[in-house]
Design a protein that fits this description.
By secondary structure, this protein is mostly helical. It has one domain: Transmembrane di-heme cytochromes, Chain C (Fumarate Reductase Cytochrome B subunit), CATH 1.20.950.20. The chain is about 75% helix and about 5% strand. The chain contains 9 helices and 2 strands. Strands 1-2 form a two-stranded antiparallel ribbon. Helix 1 packs across helix 2 and helix 1 packs antiparallel against helix 3. The mean pLDDT is about 85.
């Protein structure tokens, strides 16, 4: 059996796993609020809810229930994020989402390596995360910050002017759409056969084979070697 090393801590795996659940609830419950094109979700939910509430307005009942799910998910995600953020801030400069190398050339080379790895399945040398995963992580963090700030501003909109609330609503909608797009790309890449070792490490064991790291995450392997971990 190949020797393995822990690459994801329990806190990271716990947060990542539950983040998926809460974001899914927030997206599904937020779509009908974003656009009338998704009213069918509210109608689908509203049928049983209106029956239980004795209401004749199916759409209104569905929207009220979805808002409750949206607000509750946001609140629970906030509670979950607090200990994780505090934990991550203790090693802010070593986050994997920061570039291993800086500059335009490094960005171009990193993108080319992603093409070779995912499309041609050729040998490449990544850090702990490839450049696509790093951009995704940075984008998600930015979107989540905007969503949380604008979302709570909308919940307490009476504390702000109509103009500020309008800007908050626009920022919330834009960041919501961007987050959804990022997640679709992330899900595709995360479930790609070439990423099965990383997927297993994040959602199951927290560990990855040393040989795999050496072959596909050379920059990360060199770092581990310098630290005396391999």
């Amino acid at each position: 059996m190949a020797k393995t090393i822990k690459v994801y801590g329990n806190m990271e795996r716990w947060f990542h796993s539950h983040l998926v659940h809460f974001v899914a609830f927030m997206i599904i419950s937020g779509l009908p609020v974003l656009s009338h094109s998704f009213d069918f979700i509210a109608y689908g939910v509203g049928i049983p809810v209106s029956t239980l509430m004795g209401s004749q307005d199916i759409l209104s009942a569905g929207m009220s229930f979805l808002r409750f799910i949206h607000y509750t998910s946001a609140f629970l995600l906030t509670l979950m994020a607090i200990p994780f953020v505090l934990y991550k801030l203790t090693n802010f400069t070593t986050w994997s989402m920061w570039p291993d190398k800086w500059g335009i050339k490094a960005t171009i080379d990193g993108t080319a390596e992603m093409w070779k790895f995912y499309m041609k399945q050729e040998h490449v040398s990544f850090g702990k995360m490839n450049i696509g995963q790093k951009f995704f992580a940075q984008g998600v963090v930015l979107c989540m910050i905007v969503i949380f700030i604008s979302g709570y501003m909308l919940i307490f909109r009476d504390m702000f002017s109509v103009e500020v609330a309008s800007y908050a609503r626009g920022a919330h909608a834009i960041s919501f759409v961007l987050l959804g797009m990022l997640l679709m790309i992330h899900i595709y890449l995360a479930t790609h056969p070439t990423n099965k070792n990383s997927y297993k490490a994040m959602f199951k064991t927290g560990e990855m084979d040393i040989d795999f790291i050496k072959d596909h995450h050379g920059i990360y392997y060199d770092k581990l070697k310098k630290e005396g971990k391999v």
